[in-house]
């Protein structure tokens, strides 16, 4: 995370005696990245965070992958996926994956189990509804348009509030954060960044739960395991540091525009290992008198492009069947661009009302069975009209 936070009770000095009201010591837990060489936070537990009473193999949710063969653009209709009953962890539908990232979709109407992703950070995007993300650091509430980043190995559960919630899920094999070009050498957002510290939300108070024999599902590099902890992991009385779950609203992303059409890197919001995440938001468009506001045909020879359409009208795709909740995949090896007629229609436009989340990956994305089940198989031919 770019900045330091302190929540709850912490002692004046790190790694010094900090005692409970009964005189016993609170148990420290240092959670840090890259060994002891990067961001970390220090948490203070009522009980030992190491105390497990059992460990069993847990069968991982199915996620069979198939290569994008024959190579072609794809259109998935996520609102046709099975809507439940399900939770946002075990019930998420895997859609696309490679060895760096897994992209899924969940329609959650019930709390998830306690869960720890020990492989990498997770990024949730709330398409619709509201959720509470309960964690060892406290609770984050998120609603439509919110991104939530959950760092590697943070124990959490996702609780829908006031009805079902629809979520895009991005699971990394590593860490997700703001692009380095937005940050100073000390981690502060720079003036040219399209968002800053004021736009970010972190947990504001501890979440104290007193329970025993508590199950936590762990996804790790070798598979899945079910741990039973002697005490609930949500027993933290305070923490401080620069590593914690946080939320950011796509509606707080400030678009960068120009006289002529700007390329997708101006929309970049996050970066992960071998992938980037971009936000396309309502904005004024190009103001050169001869500008063409929609994207030109382009062939990103090093990346696959996944676009999740989550609001407004995406002008370049009009007439292709794209709708709320659609996902398009434009793979490397295929030149893509605006639909027929979109260029002429866009001439003279002053603003676009669109909302979309894009993930560009630098290794090809495979397709999972739920994606193929909701594919619009006519999409690839919509440029030939």
TrEMBL record:
Cofactor names: Fe cation
Homogentisate 1,2-dioxygenase N-terminal domain residues: 113-248
Domain Homogentisate 1,2-dioxygenase C-terminal: 292-382
InterPro entries: HgmA_C (IPR046451), HgmA_N (IPR046452), Homogentis_dOase (IPR005708), RmlC-like_jellyroll (IPR014710), RmlC_Cupin_sf (IPR011051)
Keywords, alphabetical: Dioxygenase, Iron, Metal-binding, Oxidoreductase
UniProt cross-references to PANTHER family, sorted A to Z: HOMOGENTISATE 1,2-DIOXYGENASE
Record-stated family: Belongs to the homogentisate dioxygenase family.
Name of the protein in its database record: Homogentisate 1,2-dioxygenase
Taxonomic placement: Bacteria, Bacillati, Actinomycetota, Actinomycetes, Micromonosporales
